[in-house]
Amino acid sequence: MSLKNAKIFLEELSSNETMQKQLNKMNPKLPEDVVSFAKDAHLSFTKEEMRGVLAEMGALKLTDEELEKISAGAFPTAINSQITDSVTQVNSKILGDAPAIAMGNLYVATSQALSNAAQNAIINQQQNNATMQASTTMGIATIFTLNTLES
Questions:
Q1: 127, exposed or middle or buried, with CB in 10 Å at 0-12, 13-18, 19+?
Q2: How many domains does the chain have?
Q3: Contact in structure between 47 and 67 (CB atoms under 8 Å)
Q4: Which parts of the sequence belong to the Nif11 domain (predicted)?
């Protein structure tokens, strides 16, 4: 019965453009996606039954192992899900650390700006002290050069 449903589904899919557009819009990546699409069309079968029908038609030439070798492990496996989980965790950590890094950069920039301001203030004080010392020296030298005891 299910093999019959799989055959009916393939016949309808090959002749019905609306059904083809709906399936393409769904963008199935796995055989299970096609099986669930067929269930929505009230045609129930398993992916193994679909493969059997495709093999009878000569449309399916490769086994799962051959597909795995060709795809270099692109199909979901335990290893792939572990890699996916690892990458997801790293991305989450990076996103979680971003505000702290941003605040750290803000603190560094602020401290550099404040240290530049303090350095400029010290340089201005030193220049003012040199100017005051020079003017005091000139004033004292002028006082000593005046002849105040004219009698």
A1: exposed
A2: 2
A3: no
A4: 1-49
Q: Taking the model in full, what pTM does it have?
A: 0.37
**Residue numbers of the domain that contains 118:** 96-146
Tokens of 145: 């050069």
Q: In this structure, is residue 62 part of a structural domain?
A: yes
Asked whether residue 48 is domain-assigned, the answer is: yes
pLDDT over threshold 60, residue 53: yes
CB distance 23 to 69 below 8 Å: no
Of the candidate ranges 40-49, 102-111, 134-143, the one whose mean pLDDT is the lowest: 40-49
Under DSSP, is residue 12 helix (H, G, I), strand (E, B) or coil?
A: helix
Residue range 128-145, pLDDT digits in tens: 999 999 999 999 998 888
Inter-residue long-range contacts of 48-54, CB under 8 Å, 24+ positions, other chains counted: 49/2, 49/3, 49/5, 49/6, 50/6, 50/9, 52/3, 52/6, 53/3, 53/6, 53/7, 53/10, 54/10
What is the C-alpha to C-alpha distance for residues 50 and 101, in angstroms, rounded to an integer?
53
Q: What single-letter amino acid sits at 43?
A: L
